[in-house]
Amino acid sequence: MSGFAGYDGLVAPRFATPRDPSRATYGGHLAAVLTALGWPPLPWQKYVADVALEVDENDQFVYSTVILTVQRQAGKTTLDLAGNVQNALMGPGRRCWYTAQTGQHATAKWREMVADVWENSPLDGIAKPRLSNGAETLRFTNGSEFRPHPPTPTSMHSKQSDRSSVDEAWAFSTVAYKALMAAIVPTQTTRRKVTGQRPQTWIMSTEGTTESEPFNELLDRNRASPAPGVAIFDWGVPADVPLPDASQQVQLDEFFDALYEHHPGAGYLFFRQDMQGFFEGIGRDLSEFTRAFGNRRTGATARVIPEADWNAAAYAPPMPADARICFGAAVGRDGVDSTITATALLPDGRKVTEVVKYGAGSAWVLPELKRLTEKHHAPGVIDRAGPSTEVYDAAILAGVPLLPIDLRGVSGACSALLSGIVNIDEDRVKHPPVWLHRQHTALNDAADVAARRSVSDGGWVWGRRVSSGSVSALEAATLSSWGVSNLPEEVGFQLY
User: Fold this and answer.
1) What is the pLDDT of residues 58-74, one digit of tens each?
2) Which of 50, 109, 398, 401 is least buried, going by the fewest C-beta atoms within 10 A?
3) Are 237 and 11 in contact (CB under 8 A)?
């Protein structure tokens, strides 16, 4: 498997910071702790440890923040315990902390990690757990400690931290997450000077719902372009794997096969025949099961675009070379990502859209859109409001041919795209879709998380802020689809 040499059996992640083989790493130390605890490291745990604990020429951690999102039953808890133990053993008087969505959850999970395994561990002689309520501590003979704490703004006052674990990050509201980070960061300020080592914060979770705003933003931002000092690891079932009809066992079995194939703990911590039991164990809740064992973000409410209809609108053939086309460009929320799409009008009147380019940021959009419109003698469409404003203004100045669209047009375009997918006539008879899309991960993801925002006169548009992830791909697709229905007879001059 390209990029993962030396990690035999590793299930390919959806996204992962690459290993830099020129750097030394403490990953082997963490793996040794796992082994001593009776849990020889799984391939994915070994990879995460090796990358996350890389050090620079000064023997200091390269990454101050580690983001890990992985399915249930993968071994995240054992990795975290071993990571805290490894850090505590790096020197005397080190301070490691663990928290989760509530103080009660944090204490219960810490006890599960520590109390349930330590007495039978070969490492029992180097640390002793104290289990008194409110004073839980795993204290090492070198004076280091590993403790739980509630996720409150004052819980870390007057404390110091060399490693902080934030578990179940999907459950935090924006206010609670910001308060927690404000509590943790000051505890790490002086530790690099004291210990000679860079402190780390590990943020871990399965994916959440549309209401998991801070964790969703953290994932989306760093998947698109990891920030300096951030390592990110993301396992889960791909977005193009369709949800089954839960009443059809054949479809369920095919879905279970896909979940098993993309689960890094499969074959090590459970077997394929266990999948049905997991499903039954959570009351056959397909949405929650997919979130937990597929690590796929779910909606707090039903999808705006039903998944079955979206999948039925998939189009495999290439776009006709002689078809009239229009391009759409959109910048995602906070400029995290951008997308350019093209929509073609098929001879039978249907439309087909494909993603031409998707990438981080927006600096690349103008030159790419200018190149495409010139090459194909086709116009583009950009919403002049919102995060695309700067690109729109620059395109006007650069002479890119643009079709004009206002808020009412955008609203109508959103409704037209949805009705083109869910094609129901006035008698409530359902017909095949007339809007089609060529498969692309960014477009599938956007359709999965898109939410609506109401506008004047009863209309609606795709809500950038209320959606749980970026919808730039869906927005661009909507604009190019509107544009191909509003093409002028000739395109050779600026339209605005």
Assistant:
1) 999 999 999 999 999 99
2) 398
3) no
